[in-house]
């Protein structure tokens, strides 16, 4: 099995980027939950294990990508409404998949908006029930994210539903928010995964960008509800979860139709997030070479150009997985998210 990615030697929460042979990850006693990316259908061997199967093609290898979150604590598996989850009393990983056909449009609320609100409401209710209140990170995958339906863009519908759920559960929609991404796929249902815990994370913003939750109304009546990154203290370690990051300065997209320039701008934004993180980190500085990257490309033909640009920013060998996906704005060609876990000043 080919495994790499950040690991903790002595701490409770770890994450591996594991390849196809980890498909039976639910049989490993420390598997908290997982995400699986593959254009091909992956046989689900345990329907109760919280693994989010996302139908996105992997561009750099033929095998599916599995990101498996692990815990050294005693695990409990459960289901709340549509949410499958597993927790150890300190951390919880969960997934929810909702088809829009379950929801009818009404009075300005679209099926996608209602599905999104329902998914997030279910997640927040579960977190309240478990007394594990703080979401660290959300992964969101939306069919047809750039398309329009019911008179509005589907990404804006998603944002409206997400923020409505935050407000309904009296959660902040400005300031210290969880990290997140929102990518588009050609088929499937609204798919959401989340990681949460008992420790309040620190939301990180990028001084080069207007915070997403303060975007002007031209991007939708409800702003995106996420921070540029989350920094989480886990025992002696810190976990950095960088949200989906793209070629945006201020609030405007930059370098239309130029994927190399967009990748450079994106990496500059990641460097800015790292600089802000390092002002607050207690375990030593994070660097671009410490991160494990997931790179989403709108066009598969851009793979090698993007790889070359990223390598120019990182002097050491680095871990990156490349997937084909629609980015939330139609003029954006690439989006990059990243994860790192520190351990008493060491990177693993």
Keywords, please?
alpha+beta, 60s Ribosomal Protein L30, Chain: A, 7-stranded mixed β-sheet, 6-stranded mixed β-sheet, 22 strands, disordered C terminus
According to CATH, what is the class?
A: Alpha Beta
Number of domains: 1
Calculate the mean pLDDT score and round it: 90
- SS content category: alpha+beta
Named CATH architecture: 2-Layer Sandwich
Unreliable residue stretches: 1-11, 18-23, 344-348
Query: Which series of helices and strands comes N to C?
Result: EEEEEEEEHEEEHEEEEEEEHEHEEE
The counted number of beta strands is 22
- Look at the structure and name the CATH superfamily: RutC-like
Overall morphology: globular
For the biggest sheet, the summary is: 7 strands, mixed
What's the end-to-end separation, in Å? 18 Å
Instruction: State the helicity in percent bands.
Output: 10-25%
| CATH topology grouping | 60s Ribosomal Protein L30, Chain: A
Q: How large, in whole angstroms, is the Cα Rg? A: 19 Å
Summarize the structure.
With 348 residues, the protein is α+β, with helices and mostly antiparallel strands. The protein has helices at 111-130, 154-168, 259-280, 303-313; strands at residues 3-4, 13-18, 31-37, 51-54, 65-71, 76-80, 83-87, 91-98, 134-143, 148-149, 152-153, 179-185, 190-197, 202-204, 229-234, 237-245, 248-249, 252-253, 292-297, 319-324, 334-343, 346-347.
């Amino acid at each position: 099995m080919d495994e790499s990615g950040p690991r903790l030697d002595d701490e409770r929460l770890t994450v591996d980027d594991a390849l196809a042979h980890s498909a039976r990850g639910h049989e490993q006693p420390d598997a908290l939950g997982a995400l699986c990316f593959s254009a091909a259908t992956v046989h689900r061997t345990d329907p109760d294990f919280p693994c989010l199967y996302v139908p996105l093609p992997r561009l750099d290898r033929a095998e599916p990508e599995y990101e498996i979150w692990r815990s050294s604590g005693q695990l409990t598996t459960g289901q709340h409404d549509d949410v499958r989850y597993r927790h150890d009393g300190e951390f919880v990983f969960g997934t929810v998949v909702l088809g829009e056909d379950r929801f009818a449009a009404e009075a300005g609320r679209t099926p996608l908006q209602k599905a999104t609100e329902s998914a997030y409401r279910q997640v927040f209710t579960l977190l309240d029930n478990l007394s594990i209140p703080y979401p660290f990170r959300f992964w969101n995958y939306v069919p047809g994210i750039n398309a329009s339906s019911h008179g509005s863009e589907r990404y804006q519908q998603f944002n409206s539903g997400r923020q409505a759920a935050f407000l309904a559960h009296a959660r902040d929609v400005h300031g210290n928010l969880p990290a997140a991404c929102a990518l588009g796929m050609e088929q499937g249902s609204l798919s959401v995964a989340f990681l949460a815990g008992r420790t309040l994370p620190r939301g990180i913003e990028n001084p080069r960008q207007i915070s997403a939750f303060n975007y002007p109304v031209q991007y939708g009546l409800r702003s995106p509800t996420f921070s540029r990154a989350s920094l989480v203290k886990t025992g002696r370690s810190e976990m950095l979860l960088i949200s989906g990051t793209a070629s945006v300065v201020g609030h405007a997209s930059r370098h239309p139709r130029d994927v190399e320039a967009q990748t450079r701008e994106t990496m500059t934004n990641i460097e800015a997030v790292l600089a802000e993180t390092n002002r607050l980190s207690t375990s030593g500085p994070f660097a671009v070479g410490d991160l494990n990257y997931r790179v989403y490309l709108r066009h598969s033909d851009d793979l090698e150009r993007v790889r070359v640009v990223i390598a120019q920013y990182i002097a050491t060998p680095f871990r990156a997985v490349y997937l084909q996906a629609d980015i939330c704005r139609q003029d954006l060609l690439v989006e990059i998210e990243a994860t790192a876990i520190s351990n008493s000043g060491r990177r693993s």
